[in-house]
Structure formats: structure tokens, C-alpha cells
Write a structure and sequence with these properties.
Layout (H helix, E strand, L loop, with lengths): L2 H15 L5 E6 L11 E8 L5 E5 L4 E4 L5 E4 L2 H12 L6
Antiparallel strand pairs: 1-2, 1-5, 2-3, 3-4
């Protein structure tokens, strides 16, 4: 497999894993002059052909994050349920 094929397959894999609307947690940005704050949640808008995961973050910023350089993960089902409860106005701490 040549380098082009490897990068193409990698981009396709990220497009499947981080489809549009996927909620993520940015743990830490790598070497960026204006990084998004650590532990910021965001929503995937799209993954480009270079495997950058472009997100709209909850603080209003939009930026592509780079797998292998930036640290991030998908939100768990429990975290997604908590977000939904907060959006619905439920307080689960009572």
C-alpha cells in the first residue's frame, strides 16, 4: 500500500468514527498558537481528507483538531445522557 492509499483509508476511518453531529471532548490541543481551552466539548461538523476533525465548540469557536497531535475523545453514552438532561432542564443532583 502506498502512502496515498494509507492516508485515504485513515481519513475514511475517521469520517466513520467522527461523523457529523458526534459530540467530543477536547482534552488538550497540541502546538496551536490560539488553542481551544482544555476540557471543552464540541460537535463534529465534518472530517476533511487530511483527517482533521472540524468541530464547533461549545464556547463558540470552530477549529479543526488533528488526531495524533491534539488529544480528544467521543463523549460516552452517560455524558450524552447528562447533556440531554441538562438541555431538558432536569437537575439530577436532587
Amino acid at each position: 500500500m502506498n502512502e496515498y492509499d494509507r492516508l485515504y483509508r485513515q481519513a475514511q476511518r475517521y469520517k466513520e468514527i467522527y461523523s457529523e453531529g458526534t459530540r467530543i471532548l477536547l482534552l488538550h490541543m497540541g502546538n496551536d498558537p490560539r488553542p481551544v481551552e482544555d476540557d471543552m466539548r464540541g460537535t463534529v461538523m465534518f472530517v476533511d481528507d487530511m483527517s482533521a476533525v472540524h468541530c464547533g465548540f461549545d464556547n463558540g469557536r470552530q477549529l479543526g483538531i488533528i488526531p495524533g497531535e491534539d488529544s480528544f475523545r467521543k463523549l460516552t453514552d452517560e455524558e450524552l445522557a447528562e447533556e440531554q438532561d441538562e438541555a431538558d432542564g432536569f437537575d439530577m443532583t436532587m
